[in-house]
Amino acid sequence: MYNDEVFEEVALSDTFIYKSFNRNAEMSTILLSAVKDSIIINEKYIDEQLLTIKRIKLSPIQDNVISAFLEGNIVIIYSNVKKVPSIIPFFTTRQGNHVRTYIFMNNFGKLVKDKNDLNHQYLEIPAKHLYALMEGAYISYQYALYPNKIVRSIGLMKPCADTYTSMVMRILNKEYALSMDMDAYDKVAFCVSQFFIESVWGLTNGEQIFAYARQNKNIKNNNANYLGALHDEYDEHNISSIDGLIDFIKTITPRLSSLSPRYFYQRWIETYKYSTSFAMESLPYFMYVMTSTIIGSFLINSPLIADISKDVKGIRNYYIELEKVL
């Protein structure tokens, strides 16, 4: 159906994780092959799930999500040949001015023959899981079209920054007992917060980045003079990807001297599951983590992330803010 499509990936190509998996264009080749040789899952395959989603009202933006699917802007595919790794639940592409987001369903559901009609197949997947993927894909699609609408939302950015930093600090504290040195803890948390706001969220104003980064809930001593020198040093390193962040924060304290980007990534996927991989560096994928957690989908480790984010200021208004920009 889309054999003439030229893939220009919208949100991943500059990330450390994508580059690691795309040596010699291996990942790009898999993605393109999967799209070109796949079954397009239309509404007939998921009619029961769509009815369930409409009945139980999983999300206030679900009408927009379903409309985007029915209009062909979100495409659910089941590959016949190439199975896309579960680290990529969906993938947004651009061909000229046209944007489309694909959901790779092989890792999350399976095609089953209808007992009452052997000529018909349906997609076997819980409605909540299906919707979480569709909503994540819809946000990615909207972000590709209108990135500034999301980036300018401070009401979304703040709870996301707090949650992201808490997720990272949970791993670092568990592995390296950072809370035993609160000076180091605050400095690392500040760097993680700045990384998210600047490199993941995409804020560009230096004064705003510093101000919002030090307001993070994980930082106890957020005095501007105390963190100012660290902020300047961070800026000098031009950090733009997770490996750069890891290499920088390991210089803050000897406790992190053995930390490496690969080891951190292993701990991340063990803690939060494979399909959160790109949430470390890509805004649409992190927002997928946020909405999947609120919806209660177990495609990610939503119970743990819900526990991490339960005290985050603004988390209860997340969908109110999201509706404003979509």
Fold and architecture overview:
It contains 15 helices and six strands. The chain is globular, with a radius of gyration of 20 Å. The chain is α+β, with helices and mostly antiparallel strands. It folds into two domains: 16-145, no CATH class; 149-325, no CATH class. The strands form two sheets. It has a four-stranded mixed β-sheet with strand order 1-2-4-3. Strands 5-6 form a two-stranded antiparallel ribbon.
**Terminal Cα separation, in Å?**
28 Å
Low-confidence stretches: 1-8
Q: Count of helices? A: 15
User: Any idea how many domains?
Assistant: 2
User: Taking strands numbered 1, 2, ... along the chain, how are they ordered across the largest sheet?
Assistant: 1-2-4-3
Q: What characteristic shape results from the CA principal axes?
A: globular
Structural class: alpha+beta
- Helix residue percentage: 40-55%
Radius of gyration: 20 Å
Query: What is the typical, i.e. mean, pLDDT?
Result: 92
Would you list the SSEs in sequence order as H and E?
HHEHHEEEEEHHHHHHHHHHH
Proportion of residues in β-strands: 5-15%
Sheet having the most strands: 4 strands, mixed
Number of separate strands: 6
Topology (elements, then pairings):
Elements: H1 16-21, H2 26-36, E1 38-41, H3 47-56, H4 62-70, E2 74-79, E3 90-95, E4 98-104, E5 110-114, E6 117-124, H5 127-145, H6 147-151, H7 154-176, H8 182-201, H9 206-214, H10 224-236, H11 242-249, H12 261-272, H13 283-295, H14 302-309, H15 318-325
Parallel strand pairs: 2-4
Antiparallel strand pairs: 1-2, 3-4, 5-6
Helix pairs in contact: 3-5, 4-5, 5-13, 7-8, 8-9, 8-10, 13-14
